[in-house]
Amino acid sequence: MTGSDAAPAAEPGSRNLLMRVIAALVLAPTAIAVAWAGGWLWAGLVTFAAIGLYVEWLMIVGAGRNAGVIAAGTAALSLSGFCLASGQIDAALVTVALGALSVGFFCPGMRAWVAAGFCYAAVALVGSILMRLDTASGFVALIMVLLIVWVTDIGGYFAGRGLGGPKLWPRVSPKKTWAGAIGGFVASLAIAAVCAGLGFGKMGPLLLLGAGLSIASQLGDLFESAVKRRFGVKDSSHIIPGHGGLLDRLDGFVAAIALAALIGILRGGVDGVGRGVMVW
After folding, report:
1. Per-residue pLDDT for 203 more than 50?
2. Are 60 and 227 in contact (CB under 8 A)?
3. Rounded to the nearest 10 degrees, what angle do helices 89-103 and 67-85 cross at?
4. Which of 78, 103, 133, 235 is such that its CA lies 20 to 30 A from the CA of 196?
């Protein structure tokens, strides 16, 4: 076949979209299935992800080769996950607090950044497991959070690429546009409306919840972009094809699950986080 007969190579953007779709088709059903199983399986997955978030954060800030920092944070997150899965919530929170204090001692020059990374991962760990501990409504609440984060990302991606327009915050994230932010926000309201239509809550409160979670998700995305830009890093890693690293994929979820867990705790207590979210 001559050069003129050869099929044109796929555009980089098309290849990246294809990789994103393939990765999503594998990861999303897996996450939903494990969330449905709950218990130790969900706690194990969340703990593993939290450790990955922590290690990637350390790599971004330049502490990724400090064995002491990695070991201390990994041990604290693992023990916290075990305590949460066992229903020992107080012990888990004490472990998180001690972990946040201890990791900084292994890296005095970057104590604040290292502790911040540990707390970031711990928020994802505690929020995700507490949400699912509520067997009555935990799965539904967790899936709603996941869906809102996903459609915010998907709606933002396609609205941003399709409509373009003014940039949202070019100094932090040059590719994000106002059109993308609004598109993701509208998509999240649609998910909230569907949940209300299925009888999982009242329309007004669920729309407010969906709006809040979408905004939190987008702010979480911008926060992670700001941290990477601060340290001159493009992707937190390349572990997920088309998406980058765990931080790149879960930045919006961490912020959204933190907000959802806070709402649930305020309304349902630590033992009824999922129920507190769904009856909001």
Report:
1. yes
2. yes
3. 170
4. 133
Q: Which of 17, 21, 84 is nearest to 50 (CA)?
A: 84
- φ, ψ for residue 236, nearest 5 deg: -70, -30
Residue 203 identity? M
- Structure tokens that stand for 160 in this block: 């941003």
Query: Of the candidates 259, 171, 188, which has an alpha carbon nearest to the alpha carbon of residue 222?
Result: 171
Give the DSSP H or E segment for 168: strand 167-169
User: Distances in Å between the alpha carbon of 262 and those of 35, 101, 130, 207, 258?
Assistant: 20, 23, 10, 17, 6
169 Cβ neighbours under 8 A, 6+ residues apart: 176, 222
Is the alpha carbon torsion for 79, 82, 88, 89 positive or negative?
A: positive
Where are the domains positioned within the chain?
13-278
**pLDDT per residue over 92-137, tens digit each?**
999 999 999 999 888 888 999 999 999 999 999 999 999 999 877 8
- The pair of three-digit structure tokens given for residue 71, joined into one six-digit string: 């070991």
pLDDT value of position 17: 65
pTM: 0.89
Run of H or E residues at 149:
helix 138-163
By the 10 Å C-beta count (0-12 exposed, 13-18 middle, 19+ buried), 1 is classed as exposed
Q: Which of 141-150, 203-212, 218-227, 229-238 has the lowest mean pLDDT?
A: 229-238
Among 216, 218, 196, 204, which Cα is nearest to 262's? 216
Distances (CA, A) of 100 to 79, 110, 197, 221: 13, 13, 42, 23
With beta carbons less than 8 A apart as the criterion, state whether 73 and 52 touch.
Answer: no
Residues in the chain: 280
Distance CA 176, CA 119 (A): 26
